[in-house]
């Protein structure tokens, strides 16, 4: 006799997954903003590597993205009664 398996349910709700994808997007944006500023010539130092975007903005976006990811994992979906 074959038993039917119970209905499978996702671990998180729709709201949690939306926040998680938002977090992935913000983290990816932060890493994209960090790129560049290097030099092909080893005898030339490019000061552009120390600008505001790469030193302050991009790491802040990455940390905010990790915060959003933690929130999306730890928050519970509202149960309708």
What would the keywords be for this entry?
mainly alpha, 81 residues, elongated, 0% strand
Task: Give a brief description.
By secondary structure, the protein is mostly helical.
Characterization of this structure:
The chain has 81 residues and is mainly alpha-helical. It has one domain. The chain contains two helices and no strands. The longest helix has 23 residues. It is elongated, with a radius of gyration of 21 Å. It starts with 13 loop residues before the first helix and ends in a 7-residue tail after the last helix. The model has no long low-confidence stretch (mean pLDDT 87).
Chain-wise SSE layout:
Elements: H1 14-34, H2 52-74
Helix pairs in contact: 1-2
**Percent range for β-strand residues:** under 5%
Structural class: mainly alpha
- State mean pLDDT (0 to 100 scale): 87
| Count of extended strands | 0
What does the overall shape look like?
A: elongated
Number of helices: 2
Give the % helix. 40-55%
